[in-house]
Amino acid sequence: MLAALDKLIKAVYNVVLAVIIAIGLVMLVVAWAHVFCRYVLNDSLTWSEELLKILLVWFCLLSTTIIAVQREHVSIVVFKEMMPHSANRTLTFVSQILMLAASVIVMLIGIDFVNVAGSRMTPALRIPYRYTYSAIPVSFAILSLYELRNTIADFVKGPKFAIDVKPKD
Fold first, then answer.
1. N or C terminus of the chain: which is more exposed, having fewer CB within 10 Å?
2. pTM of the predicted model, to two decimals?
3. What's the half-sphere exposure (Cβ side, CA atoms, 13 Å) at 134?
4. Residues 37, 45: contact at Cβ < 8 Å?
5. Distance (Å, rounded) from C-alpha 22 to C-alpha 70?
């Protein structure tokens, strides 16, 4: 089961990484175009700031999933390093369960945000707000998948990481 989950996670990771890179490049081009139009042509783009805000939300939330796949999210390691191995293992398992629960809760709240946003439109681009708000449930669904995998791996003493993306020394 863990091997199949790892395969799924690798595929999701690669898609998310490609999307993040694409969003970053689009943000760069739009920001440059905005600055060029505003300061060189003396005519500001009316839609660029709105698009950048939407893309930034997606960029930030999807980027958290890239960090989580390697268990690089925020933690206090000082106490973990001072504990005996068995207590450290228990603490890690409990923190994984809490992260999984928090991810699922935020995902469900995000779904409510999307539903509340409905078909309300952004002022300049006329894009429904639900497309911006959908970054929350999408990102936290991916986070939930990663945390589920990590929890199972900790429980069955499987490989620590689904993907080894860190550079070799």
1. C
2. 0.86
3. 8
4. yes
5. 22
**DSSP letter string over 19-50?**
HHHHHHHHHHHHHHHHHHHHHTSS---SSHHH
What residue type is assigned to position 72 of the chain?
Answer: E
Distance CA 106, CA 10 (A): 23
Token pair 């996670």: residue: 9
Q: How far is CA 65 from CA 27, 36, 100, 136, 161, in A?
A: 19, 33, 13, 11, 14
Which tokens is 67 given?
């960090």
* Cα 23 from Cα 113, distance rounded (Å): 22
Per-residue pLDDT of the chain (169 residues; tens, 9 = 90+): 788 888 999 999 999 999 999 999 999 999 999 999 999 999 989 999 999 999 999 999 999 999 888 877 766 667 777 888 788 788 888 888 999 999 999 999 999 999 998 889 999 999 999 999 999 999 999 999 999 998 888 888 777 776 766 655 5
